[in-house]
Amino acid sequence: MDFELMVNSFPKLLNATLITLKLLSSSLILGLFIGLGFAIMRMNNNKIINKFAYGYSYIFRGTPLLVQIFIIYFGLGQIEYLRTTFLWVILKEPYWCAIIAFSLNTGAYTSEILRSAFQTIKLGYLEAGRSLGIPSKIIFTKIQIPIAIKQSLPAYGNEIILMLKGTSLASTVTLMDLTGVAKYIISTTFKPVEVFIVAGGIYLFMTFIIHNVIKYLEKKYGFQT
Amino acid sequence: MELLYFGDKGWGDELFFATLMTIAVSITAMVIGFIFAALFTPLKLSNNKFLNSIGNAYTTVIRGVPELLVIYLFFFGGSGAIMFVASIFGYNDYIEINAFLTGSFSIGIISGAYSTEVFRGALQSIDKGQFEAAKVLGFNKNIYFFKIILPQMLRLAIPNLSNVWQITLKDTSLISVTGLVEIMRQSYIAAGSTRDPLFFYSFAAVLYLILTFLSMQLLNRLEIKYSKGY
Predict the structure, then answer these.
(1) What are the residue boundaries of the structural domains of chain B, listed by start?
(2) How many interchain CB pairs under 8 A, A with B?
(3) What is the pLDDT of residues A38-65, one digit of tens each?
(4) Got the DSSP string for chain A?
(5) The whole model's pTM is what?
(6) CB-based contact (8 Å) between B201 and chain A?
(7) Residue B1: per-residue pLDDT
(8) Domain B8-226, architecture per CATH
(9) What superfamily does domain A3-221 belong to in CATH?
C-alpha cells in the first residue's frame, strides 16, 4: 500500500469531482425536462406521438450509454452541414457532447419513471378535481405533478445514482472527470488499488449522500395514498 | 451498405464476430456473476454480523462505484495481482492475462452484485411456511434447496434477472477500453479506418438494440414458463 500516493492523489481527484458533479447536475436538470416531456407524450392518446415517445425511450434504454456518447461526439461531427451551423460551437466541445448524451439518456429513464408514477395516481383524485371544477391545467400542475414526484422519488433516486456512475463515461471523450483523472494516475503510477480506493471512496461518499437525501425527502413528502 | 460487405471489402464479418464476442462476454460475465451471487447471497441473509457486513460491503461498493473504475482496477491491477501470487510460488516472469478473462471477470463482479440483490429479495419473499414445511417433512438438504426453494426463488427472480442481463449486456461495451474486440471496439476500429464514425456507431447501436430485443423475447418466454401455475 502506497499511502503517500493516496494522500497526494486525493486533492487532484477531489478537483476532478467538481467536473463530475457539474456533469451530473446539468444532465439531471435537462434530463428531468426531457423526461417530463416524453412522459406527457407517452400518455397522449395520439398513437403516433405515443409510439414516438416509446421508441425514444426504447432506443436510449436499449443501447449502452457509451454508444450514445460516441455517436454524438464522434458521429455528429461528420455531418458537413452541422459544422456550418451554430450547433457546431456546442458539438465540438466534449463537455457539451457528454451533457447532451447524458441528458438524453437519463431523460429516457426519467420518462419511464414519471409515466409509471402518473399512471398509478388514483383516478379518484382527478375525478375529485374535475368535479370541483378545477381546470385541467391546474389539476395537472397542482395535483398530478406533486403526487407523481412523490411516487417516483425512490426510483428517481436510483436513477440519480446510476447517472452519477454514468458520468464516468465522460472520461472516454477526453474529459478529465473523477474517473478520467483516476485512470490517468493509475496509468502513470501503476498503482491501481490505491487510486481505486480513493476514487471509489469519493464515489461511494456521493452515493451515500444522494441515498440519504432521497430517503429524507421520501420521509418528508411521504404520505398515505 | 458497401461498408457492411463480408470479406475483405467490408466490415460485415468483423462486426458479426464482434457481436458473437459481446454475447460470449455477457454470458460468461452473467455466469461469473451467478457464482458471486451464490457466494454472497447467503452472507447477506446470514445472522452473523461479520458475515453480513461482508455481503453488504460487496453489494454497496460495487453498485456505488462506476463500472469503468472497476474495469480499470482489474485491467491495470489484474496481471499485477496474479504475478504477485505467482512470485510467491517462485515464478517471476511477466504474466499477461487474457482481455476476455479480465473483461468478463470485472463485468461478472458487477453483475454479481446486482444478482445478489435480486436473489436476496426473491429468497426473502418466499413464504416462510415453505421453509418450515420442508424442514418439518424431513427432506434432505439437496431436495430442500433444489426442489423446493430454488424453483420458487427462480420464479420470483427471473423478471429482475432479465434486468440484470440487460445491464450486463450494456456494460460489456465498457470492456472496449481494455482492447477486447467486441461490438464497440470493432466499431471504433472500423470508424477509425473508414472515417465514418456516424455510420459505425449507429450500426453498433442497432446491434445492441437487436441483442436486447431478442434476449427480452427469450427471457419473457422463460418468465412465462416459470410462472406456470400462478
Answers:
(1) 8-226
(2) 115
(3) 999 998 889 999 999 999 999 999 999 9
(4) --HHHHHHHHHHHHHHHHHHHHHHHHHHHHHHHHHHHHHHHHT-S-HHHHHHHHHHHHHHHHS-HHHHHHIIIIIGGG-HHHHHSTHHHHHT-HHHHHHHHHHHHHHHHHHHHHHHHHHTS-HHHHHHHHHTT--HHHIIIIIIHHHHHHHHHHHHHHHHHHHHHHGGGGGGGT---HHHHHHHHHHHH--HHHHHHHHHHHHHHHHHHHHHHHHHHHHHH----
(5) 0.89
(6) yes
(7) 62
(8) Orthogonal Bundle (1.10)
(9) MetI-like (1.10.3720.10)
